[in-house]
Amino acid sequence: MKKILIYLNSLFVILSCKEVDCNEVKQSFYPIEYNVVVRGSHIDLTWIKIVGSSLKNDGESDIMIHNNWILDSSNVEIGDTIIKRKGSLDLTIHKKDTIFLFNWHCRGKSYK
After folding, report:
1. pLDDT, mean of residues 2-19
2. Which of 22, 45, 62, 94 is least surrounded by CB atoms within 10 angstroms?
3. Looking at the DSSP assignment, which residues form a beta bridge with residue 99?
4. What is the DSSP pairing of strand 81-84 with strand 109-111?
5. CA–CA dist 81, 83 (Å, integer)
6. Contact (CB, 8 A) for 67 and 45
7. Cβ 36 vs Cβ 20: under 8 Å
8. What is the mean pLDDT of the chain?
9. In the structure, what pLDDT confidence band is assigned to residue 38 with cuts at 50, 70 and 90?
10. CA–CA dist 88, 33 (Å, integer)
11. How far is CA 94 from CA 10, 83, 111, in A?
């Protein structure tokens, strides 16, 4: 997982020097997958940082990914489950009685 985050961070640094092609950038988000119960979070307009327990391997999980889902910290609470499936750009937040679906955004346009 950490290799993917390093790759994405490097990709964004390189792409920040020229005009961003959203169709190229979104390809790097398809292989990412996580399923985490939130214990702590920090979300701003640039980054999503989540600390929690992984439901896939019963271990700890730290997520730090560029925020292309237009989330803010009020969307995520301790105990929520954050899911991003491999092969999809959608990010879901599962709360006790509600599921929120967020589409991936780039340059003001929503992608699936």
Report:
1. 62
2. 45
3. 94
4. unpaired
5. 6
6. yes
7. no
8. 86
9. very high
10. 9
11. 30, 8, 21
